[in-house]
């Protein structure tokens, strides 16, 4: 998804980065936050899909995770060069040291979090979630827990955290906006 809007006369690059596990609300929060801040919105998965001409799920299926992560590095590099954007990155993006350095240098990084049970409910049948698609619901919950644990150190590098488990979309947006101010 690419909803990039450029502000006239913008000569600086200032970003708000939304990171965190799948199903925590990065894209929905990012779109709404961008509207409220009068900024463009960039979803790195959307950049990847536009570049590759196919979905993230298809890329994982046909080319594998390593190929996807290479495309993700390229998408992150592109996203941080766009002026005044709210950027939503994939759940594993902070795990890559190059991505992490670029994102942390680009602006405040807010890690959206939720309980594994809430994430499982939000992803539903998980057909479009390559890391969960082939698993049973019970296996999905165990895999969500394992992936969150494996990514925890990377997620801790974020400037801020917001637990989205019991919050509405507007409540999450308000909390993120309070944390990042008028960046």
Could you give a quick summary of the protein structure above?
The protein has 183 residues and is α/β, with parallel strands linked by helices.
Structure description:
The protein has 183 residues and is of the alpha/beta class. It has one domain: P-loop containing nucleotide triphosphate hydrolases (Rossmann fold). Helix content is 51%, strand content 13%. It contains eight helices and six strands; from the N terminus they run E-E-H-E-H-H-H-E-H-E-H-H-E-H. The protein has a six-stranded mixed sheet. The chain is globular and about 45 Å long. It starts with a strand and ends with a helix.
Quickly list its features.
six-stranded mixed sheet; 183 residues; alpha/beta; disordered N terminus; 8 helices
What's the helix and strand layout?
Elements (H helix, E strand, L loop, with lengths): L1 E2 L12 E5 L5 H12 L2 E4 H9 L3 H8 L1 H15 L5 E4 L8 H10 L2 E5 L2 H8 L13 H20 L3 E4 L5 H12 L3
Parallel strand pairs: 2-4, 2-5, 3-4, 5-6
Antiparallel strand pairs: 1-3
Helix pairs in contact: 1-8, 2-4, 3-4, 6-7
Which strand order spans the largest sheet, edge to edge or round the barrel?
1-3-4-2-5-6
| Helical run tally | 8
Structure summary, number of beta strands? 6
Level-1 CATH class name: Alpha Beta
Give the low-pLDDT segments.
Answer: 1-13
How many domains is the backbone divided into? 1
The string of secondary-structure elements, in order, is EEHEHHHEHEHHEH
Query: What shape does the CA trace take?
Result: globular
- Round the mean pLDDT to the nearest integer and report it: 89
Radius of gyration: 16 Å
- SSE class: alpha/beta
Largest sheet: 6 strands, mixed
CATH superfamily membership, which one? P-loop containing nucleotide triphosphate hydrolases
Helical content class: 40-55%
> N- to C-terminal separation?
23 Å
Q: Which CATH-level-2 architecture?
A: 3-Layer(aba) Sandwich
């Amino acid at each position: 998804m690419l909803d990039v809007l450029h502000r006239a006369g913008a000569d600086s690059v200032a970003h708000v980065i939304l990171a965190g596990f799948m199903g925590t609300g990065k894209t929905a929060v990012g779109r709404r936050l961008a509207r409220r801040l009068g900024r463009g919105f960039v979803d790195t998965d959307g950049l990847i899909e536009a570049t590759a001409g196919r979905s993230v799920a298809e890329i994982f299926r046909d080319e594998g995770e390593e190929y996807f992560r290479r495309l993700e590095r390229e998408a992150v590099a592109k996203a941080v060069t766009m002026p005044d954007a709210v950027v939503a990155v994939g759940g594993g993006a902070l795990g890559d040291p190059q991505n992490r350095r670029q994102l942390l240098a680009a602006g405040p990084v807010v890690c959206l979090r939720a309980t594994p049970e809430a994430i499982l409910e939000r992803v539903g049948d998980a057909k479009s979630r390559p890391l969960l698609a082939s698993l049973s619901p019970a296996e999905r919950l165990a895999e969500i827990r394992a992936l969150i644990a494996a990514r925890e150190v990377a997620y801790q590098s974020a400037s801020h955290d917001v637990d989205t488990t019991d919050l509405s979309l507007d409540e999450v947006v308000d909390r993120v906006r309070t944390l990042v101010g008028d960046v």
